[in-house]
Write a structure and sequence with these properties.
- The structure holds two protein chains of two kinds.
- By secondary structure, chain A is mostly helical.
- Chain A is 71% helix and 0% strand.
- By secondary structure, chain B is an alpha/beta fold.
- Helix content of chain B is 52%, strand content 15%.
- In chain B, the strands form two sheets. Chain B has a ten-stranded mixed β-sheet with strand order 3-4-5-2-1-6-11-8-12-7, with helices on both faces. In chain B, strands 9-10 form a two-stranded antiparallel sheet.
- In chain B, a hairpin with a 6-residue loop joins strand 4 and strand 5.
- The longest helix of chain B has 43 residues.
- Classes of the chains: A mainly alpha, B alpha/beta.
- Chains A and B meet through helix 1, helix 6, helix 8, helix 10 and helix 14 of A and strand 3, strand 4, helix 13 and helix 14 of B.
Chain lengths: 364, 486
């Protein structure tokens, strides 16, 4: 009898627990569904009002974001979507609405919040709203103790696209506050060109000046990162600074300068890059080969053909790729390499020609 | 005799109680750590710009290695799906592991493959490679045709011919979420000491897949697969996140992991003599990096997703679990010297003892425990009420644990969005406690028997070193480290 009672009681308790847990899950899901629906609705409304709404209406919708982090994420997403369609007038109205709703001042205060997510989100939303007066405060977050906040500040400064922001990003690059790739991506824009060129001209040391912060990524010399950014912008004004770096920089600086020259181009670049093919460093040779292919310098064909027999795989591979890019004269050099005694030269030439649909190889 | 037996039973039952109490405490701790980590991860998601990493020329390029054995039916959509990955610079290396069906022919038809003479770039022993093929229309596609040697051998062949500094090992019948690679690559750039990173593996059965793309996530009707879905959630959200947080991650799923190529080559590649090559590699990386006094970060992220098909029949499932457990046993036995050695840090002092006590011996102890309970009941050593209380507590605890991870899933990722999916998840979280978990324990305990019968898995780890030890074609004369900047 006792056993029967105990069994009943225990089975009942198990199912009661199951029911309770199920109830928790259901309530949670219901709440999340509602929040998500509200968020979708809010984003759609914000997008519509930002495009053609009235300032007061928009301010009303923005008001909850002054207190609610989830609403700020919605504002960020909605403005990001419509921003390309907004002219200066519409953007000014959105900013006016943010000001009127108290969102702007709340976000500025939030930049000093104890919660790192709140600090980062405030920087992003202020930047989306184009609040350039906050540049200085946001730049301060580049040395925040939280790596995600530093990255958010980096992104925010790129959205604001100001000279002051570019200088702050360059300073952060020198101080190794975050992975250099993440800063270089942001600096690779016309608005940052002058600041980057100035920094490259003034940089006396190739090394970072500070010990790396947590989550700072791998060490890349400061000037090498600047060179990479200039290459991504592709502005010919960077040519002479890059040539100088290619001729007199450290190995990594030369690698990045060579790569950037392939993207920027200059009258003197092909000759300097052909010279770089004779560098003792294989990464420099490899990058010079790629750059020559990108510049379409057919006078580099003999030097590139020689590189097909280089001791380093990447030099051979990049030289073959460059010859492929150089058209008939390059392809001719590749065909000749097929008869080379060097099997490594034959290998790369064969693969490059196969990619052109020209070769031969054993048919599959 | 009876007196002696009764004393032994009492002692074992006490041991079982203590054992379960410790295990449940560890599980609770892991789930709490995992919960906290997931909360932080989800809150911080808006601050991270993964989209830029996916398109940035500055991101580290990735070679995706996909071994294929008799995958004719799925290989083309699988490769197409990999090529659709939202990542700027990648190559997809398919390794045809001596398939006896039309896997290679299907690839040739689809990609107009051309055979080339490619020289391997690393010394790793593999079965002979019959040919390397490239696609003239898409230089990202590389096919290696080799003699059959198993998954580890195929991955080693892929590593030899891959060109990029990171490689992603995946199964040919799995699908990557489009943004999965960029999320893992982000970590390698943010923390250069990262040598391997894994993402979550989720079950794709029942979902709507068209042209190699996942259109809608659904849960299947079959209870067996649904119980595995809960089990996967528990393993990843309730276990690996916490292990990763504690710096003690010992397993990155073979279905989806991203590795630094130079480090894996230095470690000798995948071990072809074990069935658990994925876990063995991770433990070996921990071991070597610590012996070399080099930084070693091996981490897991719950968001980058790889979708895989779970076994839908009990026969296939038990075979799979038997293989997994044998892999674990072999791994732990081979690296037993790391156990309780301070030189190996938290891995040697905490993670390995946990794995030995609870993962290696756990299933056998559990099965012996069931037998002990039955005998104790028969001899009147314990009362039926005590047994019922004990079993009910076990079931309640298991259920609470499963519901925690279902809640985590619901809070953070919401990959099973509709109510029908939730209903099935909740049902599976209940039913798995009545038979399924006990059966899995039995299957895992049986793995010991398989190993003892075959006599494998006991040897000391065979180091392959840095030179070729098997028929290996001539290798690139300069061991040029891959570089993102090149």
């Amino acid at each position: 009898m006792t056993l029967l009672l105990a069994t009943k009681w225990l089975l009942g308790a198990s199912f009661a627990l199951w029911a309770l847990l199920t109830f928790f899950v259901v309530v949670r899901k219901y709440g999340r569904d509602r929040r998500e629906a509200r968020s979708t609705q809010r984003r759609a409304l914000l997008e519509r009002l930002a495009r053609d709404g009235d300032v007061d209406e928009l301010a009303e919708v923005l008001r909850p974001a002054a207190r609610d982090l989830d609403a700020q994420v919605d504002v960020d997403a909605a403005i990001a979507r419509v921003r390309p369609d907004l002219n200066a007038y519409r953007l000014a109205r959105v900013r006016a609405a943010a000001h009127a709703s108290g969102l702007e001042s709340a976000l500025v205060d939030q930049l000093g919040d104890r919660d790192p997510v709140a600090r980062g989100e405030a920087a992003l939303v202020l930047a989306r709203l184009g609040h350039q007066l906050a540049t200085h405060r946001i730049a301060g977050l580049l040395s925040d103790r939280d790596p995600d906040v530093r990255l958010a500040a980096c992104r925010a400064l790129a959205l604001l696209a100001t000279q002051q922001g570019a200088e702050a990003l360059i300073a952060a690059l020198a101080e190794r506050q975050m992975p250099p790739e993440r800063i270089v991506e942001r600096l690779a824009a016309p608005w940052a060109l002058q600041a980057t060129l100035d920094a490259l001209a003034n940089a006396t040391s190739s090394l970072p000046v500070e010990a790396p912060a947590r989550g700072a990524g791998r060490a890349i010399p400061f000037r090498a990162s600047l060179a990479r950014a200039l290459g991504l912008v592709g502005d010919p004004r960077a040519g002479s600074a890059l040539l100088q770096l290619l001729r007199g920089g450290s190995e990594e600086e030369q690698v990045n300068a060579a790569r950037a020259l392939g993207e920027v181009g200059s009258d003197e670049a092909p000759r300097a890059l052909v010279d770089a093919l004779g560098s003792a460093s294989w990464p420099v040779r490899a990058q010079a080969a790629t750059a020559l292919g990108a510049l379409g310098s057919s006078e580099a064909v003999p030097a590139l053909a020689e590189c097909l027999g280089d001791g380093a795989w990447w030099v051979r591979a990049n030289a073959a790729g460059a010859l492929r890019a150089l058209g008939p004269s390059g392809l001719n050099a590749l065909r000749q390499a097929l008869d080379s005694e060097d099997r490594y030269a034959r290998e790369r030439a064969g693969e490059a020609l196969a990619l052109e649909g020209l070769r031969t190889g054993a048919a599959a | 005799m009876t007196h002696w037996l009764i004393e032994a039973l009492v002692a074992f039952n006490v041991f079982m109680l203590v054992y379960l109490a410790v295990l449940d405490t560890v599980y609770t701790g892991l789930v709490l750590i995992g919960w906290r980590a997931v909360e932080g991860y989800v809150r911080r998601r808006p601050l991270r710009d993964y989209a830029t990493v996916a398109t940035s020329e500055l991101s580290m390029p990735v070679s995706i290695l996909s071994p294929a054995y008799n995958e004719e039916a799925v290989i083309v959509p699988s490769v197409r799906s990999l090529l659709e990955s939202q990542f700027v610079e990648l190559e997809v290396v398919i390794i045809n592991d001596g398939s006896t069906d039309g896997t290679l022919a299907a690839l040739q038809r689809e990609f107009d493959l051309v055979k080339v003479e490619r020289i391997p770039r690393a010394n790793l022993p593999t079965k002979p490679v019959r040919g390397v093929y490239i696609c003239p229309h898409d230089p990202r596609v590389v096919v290696i045709d080799k003699e059959n040697g198993g998954k580890a051998d195929s991955l080693n062949a892929g590593i030899r011919y891959a060109v990029y500094p990171l490689f992603c090992a995946i199964d040919a019948d799995t699908m990557l979420d489009p943004g999965a690679l960029s999320r893992l690559v982000w970590e390698f750039q943010a923390s250069p000491e990262t040598v391997a990173a894994g993402g979550i593996v989720r079950v794709i059965n029942g979902s709507d897949v068209r042209d190699g793309k996942l259109v809608e996530v659904k849960m299947p009707r079959g209870l067996l697969v649904n119980m595995q879905i809960v089990e996967y959630l528990r393993a990843f959200l309730g276990g690996r996140i916490a292990w990763s947080r504690l710096g003690m991650l010992l397993i990155i799923s073979g279905a989806f992991g991203l590795f630094r190529r130079d480090v894996v080559v230095e470690a000798g590649g995948y071990d072809t003599t074990t069935v658990g090559e994925d876990a063995e590699l991770i433990l070996r990386l921990h071991r070597l990096r610590r012996e070399q006094r080099k930084p070693c970060r091996i981490t897991f992220f719950p968001d980058p997703i790889c979708w895989t098909e779970a076994p839908s029949s009990l026969r296939v499932l038990t075979r799979q679990r038997d293989r997994w457990q044998r892999g674990l046993i072999e791994m732990l036995l081979r690296h037993r010297r790391m156990l309780l050695r301070p030189r190996y840090g938290v891995v040697g002092m905490l993670a390995l003892p946990y794995f030995v006590i609870f993962e290696l011996l756990g299933p056998a102890i559990e099965v012996v425990g069931y037998v002990s309970i039955a005998v104790s009941l028969a001899l009147g050593v314990i009362s039926p009420t005590f047994v019922l209380v004990f079993l009910a507590l076990s079931v309640c605890y298991g259920m609470a644990l499963s519901f925690c991870v279902v809640l985590m899933e619901e809070r953070a990722f919401r990959r099973y969005p509709d109510w029908r999916c939730l209903r099935r998840l909740v049902l599976a979280a209940l039913v798995e406690n009545f038979g399924y978990r006990q059966l899995m324990a039995l299957v895992r305990a049986r793995a010991w028997w398989t190993i003892l019968r075959r006599g494998d898995g006991w040897g000391e780890m065979t180091r392959v070193g840095f030179g070729p030890t098997a028929p290996t074609p001539e290798v690139d004369p300069v061991a040029t480290p891959s570089s993102a900047s090149v």
